Structures are given as C-alpha cells and as structure tokens.
Amino acid sequence: MATPRRGGPGSLVLLGFVFLLTKGADPSRADDTVAAGRPLSGGQSLVSKRAKFRLGFFRPGTRPPAPHRRFLLDPRGGTSQYLLNWNSSQQYWSSGNWTGHSFTAVPEMMASDASPVSQYSFGYVDGAEESYFVYDVKDEAVVTRFLVDVTGQIKFLTWAQAAGGWVQFWAEPKAQCDVYALCGAFAVCTENAVTPCACLRGFSERSSDEWRQGDRTSGCARNAHLHCSSDGSVHKKDDVDGFYTMPNVRLPQQSVTTAVITSIRECELACLANCSCTAYSYSDRTCSLWYGDLVNLQDTTSAAGTGRDGRTSISIRLAASEFSATTSGTWKKKKLLVTGLVVVAATVLLTLLVFDAGSLLSQYNDTKEADVERTH
Fold it and tell me: What residues does the Apple domain cover (predicted)?
C-alpha cells in the first residue's frame, strides 16, 4: 500500500510503491500517473511527459505520452527481471533476476548497517496471476521516490530536508551514455561531462528548447544537405560529399559489415556510393557502414581507466560545403597572417635602411670635418 506525502515544492511522492503486472496482459497500454494505493496493473507501464518514464507522482504532460521509454516486467516470462526499453523494442537495461533480497543488477538494494538502504524493505512476488515488486519505508518521516528522468536512468531518491533537495542513492544504468538514444541522432555522448551530449560537426540541435530543458533525445540535424541524387550520383565534381573523422570513439550499433573491402579508400567509396550511408569505419581489414540516423556514438577520449577506452575512429559524412567553408575560412586567415607578416617585415626593413643611411651620413660628415682640419 502506498502512502502519499508532500516532498519538494509542488511534488507529491510515495512512501511505498507497488508495481504490478498481470500475466498475459497487453504491455502496450501505458499511463503517465498511478494514484496512491492503486497498483500498476494490466501490463501498464508509466510513461512520463515527453515520453520520459517516472515512477512516483509527477506532473502529467500536456500531450498524450508516447511509448519511447518504458519500465516493465520481462514480457517473455519465466524471469523475475524488469527491463528498460526504448521505443517498446530496444532493450538497454535489465534489473537482473530477483535473488530474494534484491535484483542482481542492482546490488545497491542490499541493506547493511551503514547503508541508507537499510531504512527500506524490498520485495518481489511472482504469483500465478500477477507479479509485482514492492518497497516500503520503515520511517514514515522519510520521503522517497523512483523515477526515470530525462537522462533515461532509473533513480532511487530520498528527500533531504536539510539540503532542501533530493539525494540520489543509486541510478541504473550506471553509465549515463549506456542509455539508448540519450543524445538522439547525430550527436556524441561523453561520460561524466557536465553536458554529456553534443552535436557532431556539421550538425545543430534539432530542438533548442528541449535541449535547454535537459531532454536531448531529439538529436541534431544537418546544417547542409548531402549532395546526392536519387540514383546515387552527385550533381558535379565540386559537390562530392566528404568525411570528417572522429578518433577515440565507441562505435554505434546496427552497422553493416562489408567483408570484401580491403582498404580504407574502398570503404569510403562504398559509403559514397549509397545516398543513405552516413558514416563508415575501417579497422582490421573490416569495413563497417552505417545507414540513416547515427545514434549511441560515444567519445572515449577521457575514458582512460574506466574500462570504456577506445581507439576506434569513425568517419561522418558531410556535405562538400561544410569543408569548402572551413577551407575558405582557413585560407582567409592564412592570407591575413601572411599579409601581416609582410607588413611587419617591410616596416622592419625600412627602419633598418633609414638607420643605416643615417649612420653612413654621420660617418661621411665626420670624415669631411677631419679633412678640413688637416688642411688648416
């Protein structure tokens, strides 16, 4: 049974929570709110505002929720694990099976005398007609909540009155960049960065408003369209698309491997030959091609020692104008630099000439005066 309490300003949270799934029910049904004491039943999953799942009470969205991220019991049956899915199909996290005390992938649920989790009791029931997970708070003064926020992570939080905010006990998946499509298409995710998502070169935020609110799943859009016609040919030689290479990355999934290609140049040409190809990577005599939206690209430059190191590179397809603009700008800078150096050199040379001329004139005058004195 869940008891509602007031938490932070304008928020209503639960001291206890029950997640209930009726076996054999349709998992496509989704709500964005569950009332106090009412189980989450009938195969429902909570989907929050702008399709970000949140467990507990929250302000419902102003538009019908879309099933982008869901937390639900494993629909395959035979297991006691919960799954986080993207778009109702792409699983990117599993709780692991219930051990009798916790889920195997969430060791933070194991209580100890020094652990703040000792204030809670967790339980999982697998019955003939329904299965559910429940947790209760031993101290009624403690306010807690489960949620999946805009990061796509499940978080277990407790309200800290002294701090005037929520304290996070644990989050899953632990690596924020492991959340599927966290940064949307054509963006790169950098773990532990203040702002984990950034658009790739040649792309800009598709929805600046959503990005400012911390929701970056809309991804990025091209600044310039690729110059590729329906038959795969380019309009003219100057319009040939180019590639920008990013080193030290963790490659996205869903690539197509071409085994017959034996060089990086052949791999590049194979991508150029298809208008839908957006990136390629060549390593160990293997050519990998990506078609359509590029998602889940991770920058591993600063991941040394974390087990997420990567020296693989990927080449992103860009319109020719992206390179000509850069080349033009670079040439202008070089031209200004050369002009400046020439002016400086000319000024120094002129100064030296004036100085030398003055010295010669002074020597001539001195010599002339000496001759006059010898004459007298």
Answer: 228-313
What is the Cα–Cα distance from 103 to 152, expressed in whole angstroms?
A: 19
Instruction: Give tens-digit pLDDT for 169-195.
Output: 888 888 889 988 889 999 999 998 889
On whether both 196 and 281 belong to a single domain, the answer is yes
Output the pTM of the full model: 0.66
End-to-end CA distance of the chain: 127
Q: How confident is the model at residue 138 (pLDDT cuts 50, 70, 90)?
A: confident
In terms of residue numbers, what domain contains 89? 4-174
- Using CA atoms of 128, 57, 17, 92 in order, give the dihedral in degrees to the nearest 10: 60
Maximum Cα–Cα distance across the chain: 135
168 and 204 belong to one structural domain: no
Spell 297-306 as b/e; 16+ CB within 10 A means b: bbbbeebeee
76: Cβ contacts below 8 Å, ≥ 6 apart: none
Q: What percentage of residues in the chain have a pLDDT greater than 70?
A: 54
**Mean pLDDT score of the chain:** 70
In a domain, 376, yes or no: no
Domain assignment present for 365: no
Q: How far apart are CA 28 and CA 358, in angstroms?
A: 94
